[in-house]
Amino acid sequence: MTTVQSPPVPPTAIRPKVVARTGLYAVLAANAAVVTLFAVQAGFASNALVVLGRFAGLYAALLMAFQLLLVARLPWLDRRIGMDRLTNWHRWTGFGLLWTLLGHVVFITFGYARSSSMDPVSQLVDLAETVEGVFRAVVALGLILVIGGVSARWARRRLAYETWHFIHLYAYVAVVLAFTHQVAAGTTFTTSSAATAYWYTLWGVALGSVFLGRLALPLWRNRRHQLRVEAVVPESDNVVSVYITGRDLDRLPARAGQFFLWRFLTRDRWWQANPFSLSAAPDGRSLRLTAKAAGDGSAGLRHLKPGTRVFAEGPYGAFTAMHRTRPEAVLVAGGVGVTPIRALLEELHGHAVVIYRVGSDRDAVLYDELRDLAHLKGAELHLVTGPPVPDRLAPGELLRLVPDIADRDVFLCGPPPMMNAVLGSLRALDVPRTQIHFERFSLAG
């Protein structure tokens, strides 16, 4: 299979990201309207606090189902929006869910307490002891409070990803407990078989999406492609490329700029999943990743043996030529962020300017490949070296290197400080946001 050459999207076409984002909003709004309709048909309680609590509970459950869709890693959504943005939306939706659930508990408890003359704490205990499903809901709320706590930035930075991920898995327990509480105790569902059928369908789709995207599809693809390490090639003292081969790779829907979650099935590494971008455009025969030794996972790559089985989840990411809006492009790479940039250059049509930002010449990983590829494609290549201060990619310097930068697509990948600086420069140069493409490779948001 030859590398796919994708022309830019015609100016009149609706951008894929807009289509996907609008579709998600429309799905959420339509389901909110349906939930509201069923709740109104079920009638209102005489106590306004109880009514508010019931609506808060219904909308919280709807947000919970939406959360599942955001992290299901469905290919159609991921290619158009990107895992980083979907994960970030999931995170912020999670905080909205947390406050909505707290509102549900507070309104319901105080509403019933007003009718029974109990104090709120006694009322909550009484509901948990006497109403089917309420105790399960209290447990679910406790789990969500814990998950919300460890997802706060100050806590997330102090936890290993594996620890954070293990705690986060309890969200699925909370989902099941909350769902059974609603169908058992929710007035909206106990009074309407149509509402109950809708609710089962909604949650079936949400949970089915997670099962499909995160379990069934990866298992099927790995069984089909039988990935193995073909070769391990050191690129420098701390950078290594791993070549992966397998069956029917021409049928693997990977594109330049995307990444996989790689598991190398050795005795000491099978449980680790590390996100590494493709450093060459897929050619239907092999895949290549290039990584810098930044931790135990990436440092151990140079010790892999040819023939090692590989389990790969993906491809993921919207950092592809699918999102082009202009016929010409600027590719800005920092450090080992050159890997998806190098792959993108191989696939892109039209004139491109490549800016490679590194501390020194010896840090320019894959530079020889990039130089040869730029020559072949008729692209300009600028190697920018030096310490981070003064900023070598300030607005004036970018404009000097690419005078027509505002008329080009800009693809950006590198360390977070460098990316933030370049994004600031692009804003100062009035480059339209629709022409700026980047991803932050963070699994936890």
TrEMBL record:
Residues 222-322 form the FAD-binding FR-type domain. It is a multi-pass membrane protein. Its cofactor is FAD. PROSITE patterns: FAD_FR (PS51384). The keyword Iron-sulfur applies. Pfam families: Ferric_reduct. It is found in: Membrane. The chain crosses the membrane at residues 24-45, 51-71, 92-113, 133-155, 167-185, 197-217. Keywords: 2Fe-2S, FAD, Flavoprotein, Iron, Iron-sulfur, Membrane, Metal-binding, Oxidoreductase, Transmembrane, Transmembrane helix. The keyword Transmembrane helix applies. InterPro entries: FAD-bd_FR_type, Fe3_Rdtase_TM_dom, FNR_nucleotide-bd, MRET, Riboflavin_synthase-like_b-brl. Its main location: membrane. This is Ferredoxin reductase family protein. It comes from Streptomyces phaeoluteigriseus.
